Amino acid sequence: MNNKKKIPNATMKRLPLYYRFFKNSEKSGVDRVSSREISEALDIDSATIRRDFSYFGELGRKGYGYNVKSLLKFFMEHIQGNQKRNVAIIGAGNLGSALLNYKFSNINDRMNIVAAFDNNSSIVGTTINDTTVHHSDEIEKMAEDHGIDVAILTLPAEVSQEMAERLEAAGIKGILNFTPMRLDVSDGIYVHNIDLSVELQALFFYMKHI
């Protein structure tokens, strides 16, 4: 990967879309694709696709397009990495349960949901889609025992900061934050915020200006 160029956040957000496209293309037996075909499938203009790929060197050839197997291997090795990420869902209520039932393997076969945590006695001890819900008091021990380095946070906002501090102390390196709180953590941990209310407002704005 070319580390000399700073990759824009907008490009980083599109990378999972590209990965899924090439994964589906491989499953369909497609050998190579053009930027136009990627553009039509993902509704991203061809110039943007070529610019996104340019951050990682020469991934395709003019007049030939992109080799599906080569690009899929590239995404797996240089973007996803060879390491399998062990993930925990913190909060197994409505949203947490929905995420546990989601087939994450369809979008990322290097992500392994190893546990879920909650402090609701009616949920603790249950199994959701083959994942056991443990009490929140066990987070630190299980993070160490199972090598958990990513957490998906679906807790009430008022307890999210305290939990983020516990997760950081337990060695978690990345948090996907579904709460509306902006978490205060050190530079050694990456937080990606997903605020559904903001996303909906953005959707309404774009619909209004179509």
Automatic annotation (TrEMBL):
Xref: InterPro entries: CoA-bd (IPR003781), NAD(P)-bd_dom_sf (IPR036291), Rex_bacilli-type (IPR058203), Rex_DNA-bd_C_dom (IPR009718), Tscrpt_rep_Rex (IPR022876), WH-like_DNA-bd_sf (IPR036388), WH_DNA-bd_sf (IPR036390)
Residue ranges for the DNA-binding region feature of this UniProt entry: 17-56
Localization annotation: Cytoplasm
Entry binding sites for NAD(+): 91-96
SUPFAM superfamilies assigned: NAD(P)-binding Rossmann-fold domains (SSF51735), Winged helix' DNA-binding domain (SSF46785)
Main subcellular location of this protein, as a coarse class: cytoplasm
Transmembrane segments: none
Keyword annotations from UniProtKB, A to Z: Cytoplasm, DNA-binding, NAD, Repressor, Transcription, Transcription regulation
Domain CoA-binding: 81-182
Oligomeric and partner information: Homodimer.
Record-stated family: Belongs to the transcriptional regulatory Rex family.
Function of the protein: Modulates transcription in response to changes in cellular NADH/NAD(+) redox state.
Name this polypeptide is given: Redox-sensing transcriptional repressor Rex
High-level lineage: Bacteria, Bacillati, Bacillota, Bacilli, Bacillales
Gene name linked to the record: rex
